[in-house]
Write a structure and sequence with these properties.
This protein is α+β, with helices and mostly antiparallel strands. The protein is built from eight helices and seven strands, in the order H-H-H-H-E-H-H-E-E-H-E-E-H-E-E. Helix content is about 60%, strand content about 15%.
């Protein structure tokens, strides 16, 4: 910078000298006028250089504040020129850094809350197991240990999805196979409750590109929820179709339905609705939503006209 300024001042000096000499060849007044014009231009240059240095100094101070974590710096005092361009780019960087800082802050808070929730959820069955270990039957002990095992596995899956470390397959998933695989683990439970699973309206050709194993987990959680909230002799119906925009899977039951107050919170993790059973921990549906979201999908719940619950799962063919 100083080298360039030196060249500028040398050129002004050389111009003034040449102008003065040439002016003397005409008259003294011409020489004075030539030197005066050059001097005036030099003063203007000095003024603008001084202003530029001042802005650069202010910019350096603002950058130092930004580097020390002061995201209140807005870089709005630079109106034109190269400094304004640099300030504009720095303003963009500031906004990005501020957004990332807020995101990290929220993620830390979310992680702390999640750890607290996990500790609470695991502590409950552990406490029950410790208090009743001597008096409970082997069957009861197995039920509690299975519940803890499922809870830990579900929380680990949610953590992997949150961290973005899950690699989902991109292969054709037939809905007939998906429904069969998802419902298979609940066959005995449904028999004991005299419940019926109606899959007659699952289109044989309906499919989507996704991960069969993870999708089976997502659909299985919804089926499990419907089974738990449908009385003995009830029916769970599954409908599936595909169109040019998405592949849709509808799971509904003729049970007690979903309380209106629970609908907005149904897919929040650790949320337990008014009609939740004593063993519910509020993980299954949250895990389902996370799996579908990761595969460009959505899920929402509503009540049927008859009063039962309906879950609509969609996997979109394009970005939504």
């Amino acid at each position: 910078m100083r080298k360039k300024e030196g060249i500028v001042w040398f050129l002004y000096f050389a111009t003034a000298l040449c102008g003065g000499l040439l002016g003397l060849m005409l008259s003294l007044q011409a020489a004075v006028l030539a030197v005066g014009c050059v001097a005036f231009c030099a003063l203007l240059t000095a003024f603008f250089i001084g202003q530029r240095k001042k802005k650069l100094k202010e910019l350096a101070v603002d950058m130092d504040r930004l580097l020390h974590g002061d995201y209140r710096v807005r870089f709005l005092n630079y109106e034109e020129g190269e400094t304004a361009i640099v300030a504009n780019e720095l303003a963009k960087i500031t906004d990005t850094l501020q957004t990332q800082a807020e995101k990290l802050k929220n993620e830390k808070k979310y992680l702390a809350d999640s750890i607290a929730d996990i500790s609470h959820q695991i502590r409950t069955p552990l406490t029950a197991l410790n208090l009743a270990l001597e008096t409970m039957s082997q069957k009861q002990a197995k039920q509690l240990t299975r519940r803890m095992e499922w809870l830990i596995e579900a929380l680990l899956k949610l953590s992997k999805l949150d961290a973005g470390t899950v690699e989902f397959a991109r292969e054709e998933v037939l809905l007939t196979q998906l429904v069969n695989d998802a419902a298979a683990p609940f066959g005995i439970l449904m028999d004991l409750r005299a419940q019926t699973l109606d899959t007659s309206k699952v289109s044989s050709g309906a499919a989507f590109l996704g991960d069969l194993a993870w999708s089976t987990e997502a659909v299985g959680n919804v089926i499990k929820n419907c089974i738990e909230h449908t009385g003995e002799g009830g029916t769970i119906r599954i409908l599936a179709q595909e169109n040019a925009i998405y592949t849709e899977l509808v799971i509904e039951d003729n049970g007690e339905g979903i309380d209106a107050a629970d609908l907005p919170h149904l897919f929040e993790r650790f949320y337990k609705g008014k009609n939740s059973g004593g063993n519910s921990v509020g993980i299954g549906l949250a895990l389902t939503r996370a799996i579908l979201t990761a595969q460009n999908g959505t899920i929402y719940a509503e009540n049927t006209r008859e009063g039962g619950a309906r879950f609509v799962l969609r996997i979109y063919k394009g970005i939504i």
